[in-house]
């Protein structure tokens, strides 16, 4: 169950990063509030997951989910353009996240 909390925490990291962009430097109240709520949810779920998962596993997975998710949102929602070599590194990051999960005993 702690892995589920960790994945959801990572997804909330994507939420707050995306709404932070939409907040236009915290000048739009609605998106600013969503950013803060996303941060709170992300941190609380990460804390819940680290009750039993080790920090050396949970934190990199959490940040990796946030990073890959933010890249995908940037490309799909905000129209960011990435070079082919950048996509190679995004895939490597995803492989690393999966590798950490698969090779851990937790």
Describe, in plain words, how this protein is organized in 3D:
The structure is a single chain. The chain has about 110 residues and is mostly helical. It has one domain (about 1-105). Helix content is about 80%, strand content about 0%. It has four helices and no strands. The protein has helices at about 1-20, 30-50, 55-75, 85-105. Helix 1 runs antiparallel to helix 2 (about 30-50), helix 1 packs across helix 3 (about 55-75) and helix 3 (about 55-75) runs antiparallel to helix 4 (about 85-105). The longest helix is centred in the middle third of the chain and has 22 residues, at about 55-75. The protein is flat and about 45 Å long. It starts with a helix and ends with a helix. The mean pLDDT is about 95. One of its GO terms (molecular function) is transmembrane transporter activity. InterPro entries: EmrE-like, Small_drug/metabolite_transptr, Small_multidrug_res. It is a multi-pass membrane protein. It is found in: Cell membrane. Keywords: Cell membrane, Membrane, Transmembrane, Transmembrane helix, Transport.
